[in-house]
């Protein structure tokens, strides 16, 4: 029992230490959200504010036009400003990308021989890989927390009291996508091949999650696809708690979101554990 526990905690500690000692990863965590925030959040936020700065030559602007436009966009984004709307989704995207791409470290470990040491360790392989998945998921959750912290001066509508429950959704989601990254990386020996798969999946999942716009405004076939996207439920759940905005399909609510994220994570973690169990030293 102690051997399994030590293997689990040892892998968690290793993944956390690797992240802390990697200055480039720490800096990118802080820098990337700022780029999203400034170029998309503040950019589109000024458009959706409803302030009319376009000169209409000799054309009178009806009274209360700005208020009507502001009211429309405010209702569209669940009663919050666009900057608050997008920040509450960006925290999920930050954890999603960080957790999915963490699988690349498995390929790195293959190349330096650490993976072979993990396979012959005197502990259950499933416990070893579970420790690794949990460690990387904690890192992704910390990254999301950093995004919340740096966004506070811009998104004043965030509900800080609900941050812990929002992090629960994020951690659950990170478990699923870290497991997916591990499962994919176990089938690749080159980082380039893994990167291709990540790029193919990341963009559609991200843009069909509702992080940038309400999904109900999309064409019918895109709405149908987005309902199959597990990230959709994470974004809706985190936004519900952090921003107080209920922007999603009619059947969605906070417990369906958490249940979906949990089932997705359990299924993907079981898959990653099973694949790691069958991995051979020659792989």
Automatic annotation (TrEMBL):
It is found in: Membrane. It holds the Pfam family ABC2_membrane. GO terms for molecular function: ABC-type transporter activity. It is a multi-pass membrane protein. Keywords: Membrane, Transmembrane, Transmembrane helix. One of its GO terms (cellular component) is ATP-binding cassette (ABC) transporter complex. This is ABC transporter permease. The chain crosses the membrane at residues 26-48, 80-108, 129-154, 166-184, 196-215, 254-276. InterPro entries: ABC2_TM, ABC2_TM_bact-type, ABC_2_transport, Nod_factor_ABC_transporter. Residues 24-279 form the ABC transmembrane type-2 domain.
């Amino acid at each position: 029992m102690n051997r399994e526990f030590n293997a689990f905690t040892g892998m968690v500690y290793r993944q956390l230490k690797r992240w802390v000692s990697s200055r480039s990863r720490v800096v990118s965590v802080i820098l990337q959200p700022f780029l999203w925030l400034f170029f998309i959040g503040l950019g589109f936020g000024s458009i959706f504010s409803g302030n009319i700065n376009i000169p209409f030559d000799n054309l009178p602007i009806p009274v209360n036009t700005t208020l009507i436009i502001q009211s429309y966009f405010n209702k569209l984004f669940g009663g919050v400003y666009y900057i608050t709307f997008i920040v509450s989704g960006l925290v999920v995207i930050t954890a999603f990308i960080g957790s999915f791409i963490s699988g690349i470290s498995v390929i790195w470990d293959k190349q330096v021989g650490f993976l072979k040491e993990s396979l012959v360790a005197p502990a259950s392989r499933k416990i070893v890989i579970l420790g690794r998945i949990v460690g990387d998921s904690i890192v992704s959750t910390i990254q999301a927390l950093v995004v919340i912290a740096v966004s506070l001066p811009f998104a004043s509508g965030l509900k800080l009291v609900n941050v812990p429950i929002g992090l629960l959704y994020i951690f659950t989601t990170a478990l699923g996508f870290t497991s997916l990254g591990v499962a994919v990386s176990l089938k690749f020996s080159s980082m380039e091949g893994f990167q291709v798969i990540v790029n193919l999946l990341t963009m559609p999942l991200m843009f069909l999650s509702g992080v940038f716009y309400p999904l109900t405004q999309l064409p019918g076939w895109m709405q149908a696809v987005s309902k199959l996207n597990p990230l959709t439920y994470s974004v809706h759940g985190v936004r519900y708690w952090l921003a107080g905005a209920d922007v999603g399909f009619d059947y969605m609510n906070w417990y369906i979101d958490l249940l979906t994220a949990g089932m997705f994570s359990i299924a993907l973690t079981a898959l990653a554990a099973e694949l790691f169990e069958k991995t051979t030293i020659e792989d």
